[in-house]
């Protein structure tokens, strides 16, 4: 949730960011062309990974600038989201931002900082999941360009499990066997969402790109079914301790104490380092339905205050058309069908599994109200896991607390 800062602090932050724009500390690079049009400069702020992605984004921008005969200034920006909001509201706003999680777009759009995507710029048929387009759609209009996604899937210790179950019912049965086990951070609401939305629950109602924060589906019958499954893992099946954290879950899988582990690509390097003979697979079904895990989407956008929007969108198209080799190499899921079907992507078996799971994943709502679900979600999951609340009470109370949080944040 965005926190208010003192005015002086915001002014100082903005000054520092403007200094970054000027290239302080080697954080930016300006490529100039002596050909016609060289007096124009497009400024790009990047939140992509500094080591593996930023230099390659710089190369792509340089090639575009050379072709167009303009200047491009690419900045490795590490400011916080609220810092960008302050800077972007000034005349010194960057033309393009690359590497922003889609659930920040609603805050930016509400502040009037996002330029609407030109008609026809995004071809929905080319994307891996309609949700990727939904992720950049606010009020029925598109305000960003999706280029990568992330979600969670199921890690399996192949030394302990020879045949991966196709359903979570079978996962639970197998996990009860001696020495097998299932683990994940059950009170982290991000990991829980797929079990709720897969059964018919939803965070906020989304109708053709218009999200209604007053219509919350985390207490409906489908969500309660998901809550019941999660509570059973702790109380009935006794597979997961009520106080299991990310660190505990990770440690149990890496040590071989649990053979099934739900997590994202961020834990694959640790599994390799621990010499776990693992395989990552898409989430098995639950109740005959897909487990529609939460989808995070990396996006890029053009600033509403850009003085050169046409040129900025031309640069954006070039970035969009050339960004997938960068993200494939750095271990992200490409947004397009062509990207996930490419030979380069298929070389990484771990990411192929996440790519398959992303096809049924549901993007987190991109409106500011999304920030009101995490704290009550985690707290109420803990109360349900330890048996204080039943699933129905959990859903009812969660909806109530989210609505209260939204009202207080207005």
TrEMBL record:
Membrane topology of the entry: Lipid-anchor
Keywords: Cell membrane, Lipoprotein, Membrane, Signal, Sugar transport, Transport
Database matches in InterPro entries: Maltose/Cyclodextrin-bd, SBP
Superkingdom assignment: Bacteria
Subcellular location(s) per record: Cell membrane
Signal peptide stretch: 1-22
Record-stated family: Belongs to the bacterial solute-binding protein 1 family.
Protein name: Maltodextrin-binding protein
Protein's organism: Clostridium gelidum
